[in-house]
Amino acid sequence: xxxxxxxxxxxxxxxxxxxxxxxxRAQRDPKFRPMAGLGDLDTFIGRHRRLFVLTGAGxxxxxxxxxxxxxxxxxxxxQPIDYQAFMQDEATRRRYWARGLAxxxxxxxxxxxxxxxxLARLEAAGKTELLLTQNVDRLHQAAGSAQVIDxxxxxxxxxxxxxxxxxxxxxxxxxxxxxNPGWLAxxxxxxPDGDADLDGADFSTFVVPPCRRCGGVLKxxxxxxxxxxxxxxxxxxxxxxxxxxxxLVVGSSxxxxxxxxFVERAAxxxxxxxxxxxxxxxxxxxxxxxxxxxxxxxxxxLL
Length: 303
Ligand SMILES: [Zn+2]
What we know:
With about 300 residues, this protein is α/β, with parallel strands linked by helices. The chain has 12 helices and 11 strands.
């Protein structure tokens, strides 16, 4: 009984589990323990009627979208661009869009992985009150999830900071490519959020077009570091959390307060919280059940 611990799956659940490859491996190999919480996760999901699901970068990593943080919650690379620098400094904007021009194509080509599909399946089964994602890649929607709030916005849209017009990022990509033909050929290493490294490049010649309507500054429709999530969006998500009876965190270290506050609120109203994450999270003390496993493997039983 290598997977038994605490409040474990009922007999039918265990029978269902018997057909799953990870369980079979675990049963064959007593030293194979990384999935030791899976039966508990199955039970947790089965026990709660309406789940408030919060996802983060760990969910998109298998789709080739890199994570900002490592398993200890530390920055893997230089901290990403911040809001004040972007708004106040034209050189920063040139650099951002030059890197974005190179990174966007791969970002756009990313496809949902098994974790996205598993969560879409959970919603289709009527188990999800809301999927709140910190990711800006729209891969949950691509996998079929409908009840989604993009907490930090979406990278496939551009917002004018002057007139608030929203336009497709693909249109701006065309403009950037047309205005900067020499930059298209540059190969760049992929970075989070459609960004890319262009070490040593001279960005002063990179041309960034203004808003066609008002001449204002164009910004990706995502929440940058140092920028607040719109209040209305937070309130809408809170309302769903209040209507849920439990919370499931998938692939987030919860280091950013904009996501962590939902765990705080769930804990304050005594809603049980489960998490799937490799490495520690800021909310480890508040989490009742934690599965330290890759998201795809941990949720595979839902598929
Ligand atoms: Zn405008």
